[in-house]
Amino acid sequence: MKQAERTKETKNKILRAAIAEFGRVGYQSGALNAVCRSGINKGLIYHHFGNKKQLYLACLQASCEQMMHCLAQDPPADIQQYLDVRLYFIRTYPEESRIFFEALLDPPADCRKEVEELLKPFHQYNEQMTARILQSVTLRAGVSAASAETYLSMMQEMFNSYFTSGKFHDVSWSERLAAHEQAIHQIADYILYGIAEGERKS
Q1: What is the pLDDT of residues 17-65, one digit of tens each?
Q2: Which positions ≥6 away from 191 have C-beta within 8 Å?
Q3: For residues 157 and 151, what is the distance between their CA atoms, to the nearest angstrom?
Q4: How far apart, in Å, do the first and last CA atoms of the chain sit?
Q5: How many angstroms separate the CA atoms of 101 and 10, rounded?
């Protein structure tokens, strides 16, 4: 085996072990010693990735790429299909989904900028999806597509913030993620079609 192939195999082995670790306990609780338990020399981790932060970012990049691959493999035509793809990602790749959604909802303070950069393709995809959704509905008189997109973006940020509030500090990550994905179905319907029946009273 050539040196380049051995290096690639070693890096992939480290990455798989690290995804399993961060996917199990998250970034803050993840430990390089735990990654090493799968038979990896800690010196190789430092050699190929530098430190825990850089290894985590490599895991997040791989997780983001997996999410985008799922979206590209079965491009959703509407909001329901989009949410179905997200559920497929969560169920099929539980470790990657933990890393991805934890970074999305509660990014580590010491690498927030790097996380945002890695999440850019997903945010851009969401913007495109929002534009397609708005094209399929009739907007109220006086509501422009631009203002509707801004509103939906604000609502998404507030929705995500709710799941990082104190209400969920004692809730396991899997339960928090399940609650997030369950609620997003209902919230999307409320945002697009409202919660009040009939005309607004004066």
Answers
A1: 999 999 999 999 999 999 999 899 999 999 999 999 999 999 999 999 9
A2: 152, 155
A3: 10
A4: 77
A5: 27
Q: For 110-131, write each residue's pLDDT tens digit.
A: 999 999 999 999 999 998 888 8
Q: What is the pTM of this model?
A: 0.86
Listed in sequence order, the residues at least 6 apart from 119 whose beta carbon sits closer than 8 Å to its beta carbon are 64, 103, 104
For residue 52, give every residue at least 6 positions away whose Cβ sits within 8 Å of its Cβ, in sequence order, or none: 30, 31, 32
Torsion over CA: 90, 94, 98, 100 (sign): negative
3-state secondary structure string across the chain: CCHHHHHHHHHHHHHHHHHHHHHHHHHHHCCHHHHHCCCCCHHHHHHHHCCHHHHHHHHHHHHHHHHHHHHHHCCCCCHHHHHHHHHHHHHHCHHHHHHHHHHHHCCCHHHHHHHHHHHHHHHHHHHHHHHHHHHCCCCCCCCCHHHHHHHHHHHHHHHHHHCCCHHHCCCCHHHHHHHHHHHHHHHHHHHHHCCCCCCCCC
Residues in the chain: 202
**Distance from C-alpha of 89 to C-alpha of 122, rounded to nearest angstrom:** 13
The residue whose two tokens read 């969401």 is 126
